[in-house]
Amino acid sequence: MATTNLCRGASVPRCRSRTAPPHAAGQADPARAFRGTGESDDVSRAAPGTTLLKTGQIEPRSYRDAMANFAGAVHVITTNGAAGRRGVTVIAACSVSDTPPTVLVCLNRDNRANDCFAENGVFALNTLAAGHQPLAAAFAGLTGLTQADRFAAAEWETISTGAPALSGAIAVFDCRIVAIQTVATHRILIGRVAGLRCRDSTQPLLYFRRDYRGLQRSRQLRATVD
């Protein structure tokens, strides 16, 4: 793998935490179309097409249904080292701080193959462009390809830690793991950014209501902003 220059002056974007695309290898289905529970004691209709849950015990299905309405950037998190090379499609990733630059990623801890991220101690968070949808599907485990074949479907480099950095990614955050926290079904990896690479692009790959989507700026919004 070739070594690429770091992106100087780039800032770490802030975003809300997301769950991963459906059926991703080692990841949970983020949501199902929001329908509510249908139980009169727990549900009230606030307006047509809106469901309000009043119960103190939220069912996992209802939570996933609500999360379907959160649009999220799609990433492939990668690692390489003594524990092996691995990549997984994720949405559950966000900025922690810019001083020092730190990001976090959530991985399903029930998939033991994900243990290699913690064992290697490094990861690269590769933010995908709209044209990377086939790659996102591959690393989500939807194509049946092996890890080796998934990596063979794209060009990779290294920046600082040795974790694979996607050549065409909108941004790459190359990280050394500084903390790991287990919460419920997931393991949160907190990484100090050791290297950056970024490129100009206005077409990120997004995931919304269980489908991959592009980013379009509406004419009405453009007129309002301009």
Cα radius of gyration in angstroms: 19 Å
Secondary structure: number of strands: 14
Note poorly predicted spans.
Answer: 1-44
Shape: globular
**Which sequence of strands runs across the widest sheet?**
5-4-8-11-12-7-6
Based on secondary structure, the structural category is alpha+beta
Most strands sheet: 7 strands, antiparallel
Q: What is the string of SSEs from the N terminus onward?
A: EEHEEEEEHEHHEEEEEEH
| Separation, N- and C-terminal Cα atoms | 44 Å
Mean pLDDT: 79
Please state roughly what percent of the residues sit in beta strands, choosing from under 5%, 5-15%, 15-25%, 25-35%, 35-45% or over 45%.
25-35%
Describe the structure.
- The protein has helices at 60-67, 115-120, 133-139, 147-152, 219-225, and strands at 43-47, 50-53, 72-73, 75-79, 86-90, 93-98, 101-108, 122-127, 156-157, 165-166, 171-183, 186-198, 206-207, 212-213.
- With 226 residues, it is α+β, with helices and mostly antiparallel strands.
- The strands form 4 sheets. The protein has a 7-stranded antiparallel sheet.
- β13 and β14 form a beta hairpin.
- The radius of gyration is 19 Å and the shape is globular.
- The protein starts with 42 loop residues before the first strand and ends with a helix.
